[in-house]
Amino acid sequence: MSSVVAELPDFLRELLVSDFAFVVLFFVFVLEGAMLLYVAPSELLVPGALILVGEAYLLPILGIAVLGATIGQFALFLLAKRGGREYLLSRSWFRIDEAKIDRFDGWFDRWGPLVVPASNAMLFTRGMLTVPAGFAEMSSRRFLVLSAAGTLVFEGALAALYLLSGQVLA
């Protein structure tokens, strides 16, 4: 057990070392993918999970991260596709303003669907093309594949940086 986990309150430590740790992690990634996780930067989630749950669980953590975030993004994509621009902008939980939507709509119009995985793989734009893809009525299957691919690159890079930083600092 890592020293970070040992210092946590008993109930949280028990949860992180239980069979439910991956379930909790999955729901955290669903919220992150749906752009509803405002309390933690997405860049810290996989490294944090590796610290708390353990590096031995790298592949399950990456799988959960990609699956959870993709499901969250797909839910937001469907809301954009079915509800439209006005619907999303009228929701208090949707914290992206119209100017940003316009900017990312422009990206989508200029580069097409391939900007979805590219934006998912980059810092600060992660998930931002989900909404324009929904507005453009991209096919659901294509969105899922492209979203998952970009998320895998992003989360894999974060895991690699975390693991390499341990090698460099050791």
From TrEMBL:
Q: Name one GO cellular component term.
A: plasma membrane
The record's section on InterPro entries has: DedA_domain, VTT_dom
Superkingdom per UniProt:
Archaea
Q: Name one Pfam family in it.
A: VTT_dom
State the compartments where it is located.
Cell membrane
Q: Which residues form the VTT domain?
A: 51-153
As for membrane topology, the entry says: Multi-pass membrane protein
Q: Which UniProt keywords apply?
A: Cell membrane, Membrane, Transmembrane, Transmembrane helix
Please list every transmembrane segment annotated in the UniProt record, as residue ranges.
20-39, 59-80, 143-164
Q: Where does the UniProt entry say this protein principally localizes?
A: membrane
Q: What is this protein called?
A: VTT domain-containing protein
Which species is the source of this protein?
Haloferax mediterranei (strain ATCC 33500 / DSM 1411 / JCM 8866 / NBRC 14739 / NCIMB 2177 / R-4) (Halobacterium mediterranei)
